[in-house]
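Researcher: I'm preparing a figure for a lab meeting and need a structural model of a single chain. I don't have an experimental structure, so a prediction will have to do for now. The sequence is pasted below. Please return the structure as tokens so I can convert it later.
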Amino acid sequence: MLTASRWYESGSFWQFAITIVVAVAVGALGAFATTRASNPKRRLTYRTLANTSLFVASHSQTGALSVTHLGTAVARPRVIELELKNAGRRDITATQFHAGESIVFDLRAQVVAVLEVTSSPDGAVAPAVTLTSQVGQIQIPPCLLMRKQTVWVSLLVDGSGADVRCVAAPLVDVQVRQGDAIPVGMRRILTLMVITLVLLTAGVGSMLGYVISARP
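Model: Understood. Here is the structure written out token by token.
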């Protein structure tokens, strides 16, 4: 028991143990940063900014208003605003569309028309958006989506306000998900928090080792 009490009360032991833990943490953080820098991820996010009916309930029931497109009546007109964002750190090129297949979205309502396709920043080319042979679906064929490029698609549909779904995303080495991406600034803050935690651990460990070694 005396022998055991000496090793776990030894300041040198705790200094050595804490040094090992901190070294492993710093090494893991460094390896993560190196891997992240050498293998930047490609991410494509999408979300529905608006899915708005052009009628209020009373209008659709009484027929007080009507909407037509190219002479055809639209019974339940809605405007959908769809946003696509290259949230990764590299361009998404046309060659990453596997076998030349398109990204497909299901609007779950009959698509009457693609009203507008815009893109940001200046100089970024907006992709083509066309209808598929399936009712209620649109597609984006192989194209270049530049780093930090955002695309907004406005559509007129006839149907209910169901959520838009991505039903096909044949992209190689590209993560596709619904919802907004974590902002770059937030990712940097999280990284700084991890580094700060490691440094605090090292500082507390050194102080603890000094206190234990200084005990009579």
